[in-house]
Amino acid sequence: MKKIAIFASGNGSNAENIIRYFEHHKSVHVSVVATNNSNAKVLKRVKKYKVNTILFTRQELVNGQILTRLNEHGIDFIVLAGFLLKIPQIIITQYLNKIINIHPSLLPLHGGKGMYGNYVHQKVHASKDTESGITIHFVNEKYDDGNIIFQAKCTLEPHLSVKKIAQKVHNLEMKFYPKIIESILYESD
Q1: pLDDT tens for residues 47-98?
Q2: Domain that holds residue 65
Q3: 161 located within any domain
Q4: Are 50 and 20 in contact (CB under 8 A)?
Q5: Is 69 a domain residue?
Q6: What is the number of domains present in the chain?
Q7: Residue 154: CA count within 13 A, CB half-sphere
Q8: d(Cα 20, Cα 27) in Å, to the nearest integer?
Q9: Catalytic residue among 24, 73, 103, 137
Q10: Tens digits of per-residue pLDDT, 9-33?
Q11: Nearest CA among 111, 171, 181 for reference residue 150
């Protein structure tokens, strides 16, 4: 059984979608949802599932103390789902090619520090891009720089609002992220 930890900092819709997808899976289980934000809505979302939660500080992440807690749960793989802190090298080394992230644009466009959520969609809108989408990638020591695993695109009609762009991209996240996680875990066997 592969055990996943989901790191999230906010709303948690992606985290909940992933938990539901694997809820009755035979070989993959979401064991932990970890957050650095005690007010994150993800904590309320996951209460109805049998998933452990870990609240940690930025310092516990940076100095690698979080690794002890992940090891206690036997975590094999880390999924970032709206997690806003940079993953430090000590964790990347421990989970080499076992940490993935989803970004709400077609990287390398509109990535990097501070580019998340509506900031990305606003940039897509301001740039008058004709398409956007999602990028699922491995995590390395730089924001949004790891090897790309998968991308999905959506066409953007002229004059589409930031809110509508966000909804189109969110729909792609819901459709593809759990399936790509599953395929990566099967490939790693």
Answers
A1: 999 899 999 999 999 999 999 999 999 999 999 999 999 999 999 999 999 9
A2: 2-96
A3: no
A4: no
A5: yes
A6: 1
A7: 24
A8: 14
A9: 103
A10: 999 999 999 999 999 999 999 999 9
A11: 181
